[in-house]
Amino acid sequence: xxxxxxxxxxxxxxxxxxxxxxxxxxxxxxxxxxxxxxxxxxxxxxxxxxxxxxxxxxxxxxxxxxxxxxxxxxxxxxxxxxxxxxxxxxxxxxxxxxxxxxxxxxxxxxxxxxxxxx
Length: 118
Hints:
Elements: H1 2-20, E1 24-26, H2 28-57, H3 61-64, H4 66-84, E2 88-90, H5 93-117
Antiparallel strand pairs: 1-2
Helix pairs in contact: 1-2, 1-5, 2-4, 4-5
């Protein structure tokens, strides 16, 4: 049940980010659900690897500034989702970074909202 709630929160954050941010488009809530599924799988499979690579490539600074590195990893994964899905489009890498920031904030607020309802 927890994984379904996480998927729903990620879908909502993708959908709301697409509504707020120009250059970040998704075809309806169904497209947001598909994009969130692809993003979740890619994050599980590749997220840690990209994070580790960036940490080593920046001579450890990426590990010290993990919060910044995490947003860069999310932006890279969002661009992968853009390439893999026809329901999801991002205009530039800068838009992907801003989208990653917004998705993190919206996702955090949605998680707090769900916990408050319990």
